[in-house]
Amino acid sequence: MCGIAGVFDTRGGSEINRNLLHCMNETLTHRGPDEGEIYIEPGIGLGHRRLSIMDVSSGQQPLFNEDGSVVVVFNGEIYNFRKLVKELTALGHQFRTHCDTEVIVHAWEEWGERCVEHFSGMFAFGVWDRNRQTLFMARDRLGIKPFYYTLLDNGLFLFASELKALLVHPDFDKTLDHQAVEDYFAYGYVPEPKTIFKHAFKLNPGFILLMQRGQQVVQPREYWDIPFKPHDPLSDQEAAEELAVRLRNAVDSHLMSEVPLGAFLSGGVDSSAVVAMMAGLMKEPVNTCSIAFADPAFDESDYAQLVADRYQTRHFVEQVKQDDFDLIDCLAALYDEPFADSSAIPTYRVCELARKRVTVALSGDGGDENFAGYRRYRWHMIEERLRSKLPLELRKPLFGLLGHIYPKADWAPKFLRAKTTFEALARDSVEGYFHGVSILDNKLRMQLFTRDFRQSLQGYHAIEVLRDYANKSPTKDALSLVQYLDMKTYLVGDILTKVDRASMAHSLEVRVPLLDHELVEWISGLPASMKLRQQEGKYILKKSLEPYLPHDVLYRRKMGFAVPLASWFRGPLRERVRTALLGNTLADTGIFDMGFIKKMLDQHQSGRRDYSASIWTLLMFEAFLRNTLKTGNRLYPGQDQKVA
């Protein structure tokens, strides 16, 4: 696990500013505290910060081939590197180290752009080939590792593991992308390939990027997608048995390490599954880490303890308290762009706890997307059955009217909160799903934004992100489609981003065996009925784990890694929230209707409505402005001005 940075002169072989590249690289020291090196030749400069995991003594980067004509900077792990070393050695390549990084330069020499098809792992890298005058970059299939880039007006192409390294460059354009602002207040993050900045981008998961001298156009190309190709029919028992074997193999491949290794253990099905498999593969007890909450409605630590006791792990627990609200500015600095998943707080703390014991931790991320574990999938499929009974031209006026007149009932039990369901039924499938996952729905966003800012969007709507992916989806099955949408948006933009930044803040490597691409491919081919059956999500995963985990862990109600924001904002954090949101930072942007923000705060703090998610989303945007932009300038683009 490391940090990478690079500068490439697309127009010629100009001198690269060593001090500037060094500063870019040093912003990533938290990602790689062990070593930091840069390499410069005419027209290209590469930087690397190292967290030593494999071949600790001789795996330094930038790393070269035999004659020094090919050099790589790499962040991640290639889990099948030993197999590739044998294959490439047989083809005549010579290896000088025992680390996975070196297979990348030789694989590039042997297979060119198709080298990524041979890699199993998590990765983001840049390879400079002097003979071809080519910079080749790639990101892993699921987007576990981040990759940011920008092309400056002067022809310099910059890339890095985090936006903060790009922000160092004095010519980086900090103009906000107003479509990205709209996306953020809908999803709570900025979906790939956008960033919050108009001229900076994320390389999409499963994409490569080739830049050559004289090339002024950036054209990423996809090399992999989730296939959702059906298997030959399997019985439940056959599928469960094969899944257990494949899960064990995926976990086994992720255990390679020369440093202490452990796992996160939340008490949920996914992390418990990973720990159970680790316990059967490791000679020593597994190191496990959990976070607890004082509020029992959010606390899963007892379930984590059940699994820890069963497998006799070395288990460590810490409690998240209300004063973790102080992490807001810390999180804003970590993410470099607004990020509204409040579970970033406990994620940050569990990474902090884990790093006290281990350098590498395995997590259960990806299980919900793979196996349809989110409750929203169940609601969506209920709505889909209702949609199938009435055409849209009948549903739209009927349920649209019901959604309009039915009262908003945040205080009521879930089954009485019909307003959202009525509103979803008045829409097509993608629009209905978008309505369900939006933090601020269409009406709220339009009330939140000023007239000037709404006009600046020129008709753009955040749903277009989902529509674009739906149009290219390899599956039309209703459940598989929304899983695909989540894997392309929520998984990479929220879950994996959250874990990467929180772990790297503590120089901790996190691995996600449930996102092993071969495992993901196989799971995607299972019928939807094996993932969601009679309102039971993760059906086949739970069946496969019955011999390994307690019934109470497998079949209890899902809780998630949540934070009790609603009560925090009405109680001890009441005045701090008002000060942050009603101060000058948001008001001076010209984006927000401050009267509506005040109304939201008043209604939430009086208990009339629950606006906790919306308030948190605003808080994180305000923190981004203060910490990353440090600006009070107006941002709506009637002016379309840069932010200094």
Write the layout of secondary structure elements.
Blueprint (H helix, E strand, L loop, with lengths): L1 E8 L8 H9 L8 E7 L2 E7 L12 E2 L5 E9 L2 H10 L11 H10 L9 E9 L4 E6 L8 E4 L4 E5 L2 H5 L10 H10 L12 E3 L4 E6 L8 E2 L13 H18 L7 E4 L4 H13 L5 E7 L7 H10 L3 E7 L7 H8 L8 H12 L4 E3 L4 H5 L3 H15 L2 H14 L12 H8 L3 H9 L4 H7 L2 H6 L6 H10 L5 H11 L1 H15 L4 E3 L5 H8 L7 E2 L2 E2 L1 H7 L5 H4 L10 H6 L3 H9 L1 H4 L6 H12 L6 H18 L15
Parallel strand pairs: 13-14, 13-16, 14-15, 16-17
Antiparallel strand pairs: 1-3, 1-9, 2-3, 4-5, 5-6, 6-7, 7-11, 8-9, 8-10, 11-12, 18-19
Helix pairs in contact: 2-3, 6-7, 6-22, 9-28, 10-20, 12-15, 12-19, 13-14, 14-15, 19-20, 25-27
Descriptive keywords:
644 residues, alpha+beta, Glutamine Phosphoribosylpyrophosphate, subunit 1, domain 1, Rossmann fold, 4 domains, six-stranded antiparallel beta sheet, 42% helix, disordered C terminus
State the gist of this model:
With 644 residues, the protein is an alpha+beta fold. Helices cover 42% and strands 15% of the residues. It folds into 4 domains: 2-222, Glutamine Phosphoribosylpyrophosphate, subunit 1, domain 1, CATH 3.60.20.10; 236-372 and 490-554, HUPs (Rossmann fold, 3-Layer(aba) Sandwich); 375-487, no CATH class; 566-629, no CATH class.
Descriptive report:
This protein is of the alpha+beta class and 644 residues long. The chain contains 28 helices and 19 strands. The chain folds into four domains: 2-222, Glutamine Phosphoribosylpyrophosphate, subunit 1, domain 1 (4-Layer Sandwich); 236-372 and 490-554, HUPs (Rossmann fold), CATH 3.40.50; 375-487, no CATH class; 566-629, no CATH class. The longest helix is centred in the middle third of the chain and has 18 residues, at 236-253.
